[in-house]
Write a structure and sequence with these properties.
With about 80 residues, the chain is mainly α. The chain has helices at about 20-25, 60-80. About 30% of the residues lie in helices and about 0% in strands.
């Protein structure tokens, strides 16, 4: 939690019933009825490894790639005028 322009972040823990315990609010100087803005904080794991398998791709020859590119170009020209 932070006030506008305040870079001092404060953390509140939401209880199981969805409320924020009054003692946490009181420590921050907030009175009952105070309006709070919630901003989701995404936690990004650091130093992790990617695990799993990649999907298998079709074995394409250069000619197949060029043919597909030509078809895509024609479709784009047709749809864009």
């Amino acid at each position: 939690m932070s006030a506008l322009g305040d870079d001092n972040l404060r953390e509140l823990v939401v209880a199981g019933d969805g409320s924020i315990p009054a003692d946490q609010l009181r420590k921050l100087g907030l009175l009952p009825g105070a309006h709070l803005r919630v901003v989701e904080a995404l936690l990004v794991p650091s130093g992790g490894r990617l695990a799993g398998s990649l999907p298998e791709f079709a074995d394409l020859a250069w000619e197949d790639f060029e043919r597909g590119s030509e078809l895509a170009r024609r479709d784009a020209e047709t749809s864009c005028g």
